[in-house]
C2 domain-containing protein (Tieghemostelium lacteum), 154 residues
Amino acid sequence: METKDKRVEQKKIDPTKYDVISFNILNATVLEATDPNGLSDPYVRIGKVKSDSLFASRWLVETEVQEKTLSPTWNYMEEVIIGKDIDRIIIELWDKDTFRNDYIGRAYVDISELSDYKSFINQGFKIYKNEGDKKEAGTVWVIISKSATFSDSS
Ligand SMILES: [Ca+2]
């Protein structure tokens, strides 16, 4: 996946309309293996979600695939620019396969509580295969923070 063109560069962005959000995808636990060998090849992607939708309107970041494990570690970090009108993101956990990747589950995160440049969310998010499931399919640990880029450059 090309991440280069999504990276935050030193350009003028209206800080009244946009935030720089930093996603640090640390690790995950897969509770139900999706491959016949009893393992998975997990990767995570994060997208923004409009408030009236269950699905991502755009994918923002995606990790590498960790092969043959139920406890992948990425320590993946990326900053993205997103509109202040976005108050929810989706975290999806997938298993990479040769032909068709297997969906493992997802979680929604309210990022409206990131009110200032020092606030952050540091949490193991339980992910669920289907809306309303009682048992989670796994956990993805992510630190989400509002970057100080704008306040530094202004
Ligand atoms: Ca696989």
The beta strands are 18-30, 42-49, 56-62, 73-83, 88-95, 102-110, 120-127, 138-146.
